Amino acid sequence: MRTLKRTIEPAADGRTVRSLLRQELACSDAHISRLKRREQGILLNGVRCYVTARVQTGDELQIEIGDCRTGTSCRWRFRWTCATRTRIC
Question: How far apart are CA 32 and CA 2, in angstroms?
């Protein structure tokens, strides 16, 4: 799993993790919910945190990106064409 790290700048001091994820990193509420369930999904200074936690200048926010699962080579999407399904990798 890949991770995205961001060091908190003075302009973001005092904001919540949720507001940074939503506004700065464009994460949806559904994505944030999935991240919260992962053990290493959302980390603040290397420690798992609540999305209501307030950040300070110099903190490091880290999130997992991508939904890669071991053992899967591609995702299945279905496109409806004349009532038939086609596999797209």
Answer: 16
